[in-house]
Specification:
The complex is a heterodimer of chains A (114) and B (116). Chain A has no helices and 11 strands. Chain A has 114 residues and is mainly β. In chain A, strands 2, 4, 5, 9, 10 and 11 form a 6-stranded mixed sheet that branches. In chain A, strand 6 and strand 7 form a beta hairpin. Chain B has 116 residues and is an all-beta fold. In chain B, strands 2, 4, 5, 6, 9, 10 and 11 form a 7-stranded mixed sheet that branches. In chain B, strands 1-3-8-7 form a 4-stranded antiparallel sheet, with no helix packed on it. Chain B is globular and about 40 Å long. The termini of chain B are far apart. The chains are: A mainly beta (114), B mainly beta (116). At the A-B interface, strand 5, strand 9 and strand 10 of A face strand 4, strand 5, strand 9 and strand 10 of B.
Chain lengths: 114, 116
């Protein structure tokens, strides 16, 4: 069965510091991987997605993620955190034949302090 | 272009009552999904419509939940009778192309349901 694990329900960084949000997946078939962000009182917004093309995926707002098959990981990074990055981040997986159903991790809430 | 909209944004009801949630997808999107997040846990899939047909309803928790999509446009999710464990945030999402796994799902802001 497919599943997603996000390590750390809460992550706190200083403004300007590296952001690293961890995501590991379990899938018996080639996965498609996504990162979504939810700002307060808003819906989920797609940050980036991996669709079996380049393993390093660049998304919006300076975020990127690298698909590592050997580690079954898809960690999200941003070189320099901004106060506006404070939000909840969700890693999700879908797979061919799954009719687009997304399987989510539990989410990581990112706090950015001055 | 308008995004996915959901109504109401919040609903507070008593156990045993009925609640109906509505989702309006992005115009032209054939795929419509319902998800639920309970008590800070992971967001879980409920069901998937392709136009007016249910493609996958494997995530529906029980027969107290009824989803419809009239004419392949908006969708409703009815909970009858509501139980305490139904509390959570219900998200709707839509996507444009049928059977292309990489299509982006666009999410609405969610409906926060509280059952007392």
């Amino acid at each position: 069965a497919q599943s997603v694990t996000q390590l750390g329900s809460h992550v706190s960084v200083s403004e300007g510091a590296l952001v690293l949000l961890r995501c590991n997946y379990s899938s018996s078939v080639p996965p498609y991987l996504f990162w979504y962000v939810q700002y307060p009182n808003q819906g989920l917004q797609l940050l980036l997605k991996y669709t079996s093309a380049a393993t390093l995926v660049k998304g919006i707002n300076g975020f990127e993620a690298e698909f590592k098959k050997s580690e079954t990981s898809f960690h999200l990074t941003k070189p320099s955190a901004h106060m506006s990055d404070a939000a909840e981040y969700f890693c999700a997986v879908s797979f061919s034949g799954g009719y687009n159903k997304l399987i989510f991790g539990a989410g990581t809430r990112l706090a950015v302090h001055p | 272009e308008a995004g996915v909209t959901q109504f109401p944004s919040h609903s507070v009801i008593e156990k045993g009552q009925t609640v109906t949630l509505r989702c309006d997808p992005i115009s032209g999107h054939d795929n419509l999904y319902w998800y639920r997040r309970v008590m800070g846990k992971e967001i879980k899939f409920l069901l998937h419509f392709v136009k007016e047909s249910k493609q996958d309803e494997s995530g529906m928790p029980n027969n107290r939940f009824l989803a419809e999509r009239t004419g392949g446009t908006y969708s409703t999710l009815k909970v009858q009778p509501a139980e305490l464990e139904d509390s959570g945030v219900y998200f709707c999402a839509s996507s444009q192309v049928v059977q292309r796994v990489i299509d982006t799902q666009y999410f609405g802001p969610g409906t926060r349901l509280t059952v007392l």
